[in-house]
Amino acid sequence: MLSILFGLGAALGWGAADFFGGLASRKAGAYRAIFYGEGIGIVFVVIAALIFQQDFPTVRSCLLAALAGMIGTLGILLLYQAMTLGLMSIATPVSALMAAVIPIVIGAAADGLPKAVTLLGFVFALFAIWFISRGEGNVKDIFAHIADLKLPLLAGVGFGLYFVIIHEATRESTLWPMVLSRSAGMLLMTTFLLVRRESWKVTPSAWPLIAVNGLLDVGGNILYILASQLGRLDVAAILSSLFPASTVLLAALFLKERVPRSQTLGIALALIAIILLTM
Predict the structure, then answer these.
(1) Angle at CA 96, nearest 5°, toward 148 and 147?
(2) 39 to each of 21, 126, 182, 187, 225, how far by Cα in Å?
(3) What are the Cα distances from residue 192, in Å, to 41, 76, 187?
(4) 172: phi then psi, degrees, rounded to nearest 5
(5) For position 141, what pLDDT does the model report?
(6) For 208-233, b where at least 16 C-beta lie within 10 A, e where not — what string?
(7) With helix as H, strand as E and coil as C, how does the chain read?
(8) Which domain holds residue 76?
(9) Residues 92-148: tens digit of each pLDDT
(10) Beta carbons of 133 and 191 less than 8 angstroms apart
(11) Residue-averaged pLDDT of the chain
């Protein structure tokens, strides 16, 4: 049960982080918001690691953490690239679904198939992720752009592999691997921004939003790690992947955005999935 609570906490943290990250992106640009948000997150995790006096992990864990950070950041870049090509209606749901499927497959291979009610929960959760992420996009968009699914699929593979690799990297320690993971991601983002010759300037009004985004995002990561350590990898990943639901609810609450029927259905399916996964 504690693992499930941590997984739901990760979903809430990541969903809220995306909400504030979206607001920050409007002011600072998406890539700069991600870059500086990760930097603030690193500072927070370093301070936490020093306070709790966690032992530094082995070389293997360090390498895995760095690999996870670079793969996860690459997934973000691929997702944004897909969106810039006009694939926004299909990029998010396809990548989100792939990100959830990969840990399910690997978790089943490593720990065996879960009980039937858990598998049923997975089915409801996958449909929930699809409908919530899809928003008002039409399913016909998938077939219209079937040849363009490469980038969203690769982005989803990146996110799914991040779930798996960071779980393995944090078996000995939680916080220091997060520092290494974020540092590797920032290195990749730095290279990307330099190649694109992007401006590094951020308007002062964006900093509070970037800071909140960075803290919530790293908090979601830590909660996911705890969930995967205390329970099954696949259950932790699928619960954490429900984070778009909290983003949608926050947007409806604070920005008065209308929630489409498909997202309402997705949120209802997510609640059913949560109940099944707790049984």
Answers:
(1) 10
(2) 14, 32, 8, 10, 20
(3) 19, 12, 9
(4) -100, -30
(5) 53
(6) ebbbbbbbbbbbbbbbbbbbbeebbb
(7) CHHHHHHHHHHHHHHHHHHHHHHHHHHHCHHHHHHHHHHHHHHHHHHHHHHHCCCCCCHHHHHHHHHHHHHHHHHHHHHHHHHHCCCHHHHHHHHHHHHHHHHHHHHHHHHCCCCHHHHHHHHHHHHHHHHHHHCCCCCHHHHHCHHHCHHHHHHHHHHHHHHHHHHHHCCCCCHHHHHHHHHHHHHHHHHHHHHHCCCCCCCHHHHHHHHHHHHHHHHHHHHHHHHHHHCCHHHHHHHHCCHHHHHHHHHHHHCCCCCCHHHHHHHHHHHHHHHHHCC
(8) 2-277
(9) 778 888 888 999 999 888 888 889 999 999 999 999 988 888 765 555 555 555 566
(10) no
(11) 87
Give the number of domains in the chain.
Answer: 1
Predicted model pTM? 0.89
- Amino acid present at 13: G
What is the band of 252 on the pLDDT scale with cuts at 50, 70, 90?
A: confident
- For the chain, the residue count is 279
| CA-based nearest residue to 188, from 70, 25, 80 | 70
Q: Please, are residues 158 and 80 in contact by the beta-carbon 8 Å criterion?
A: no
Q: Which two tokens stand for residue 76?
A: 């973000």
CA distances from 68 to 60, 61, 133, 212, 268 (A): 12, 10, 23, 23, 32
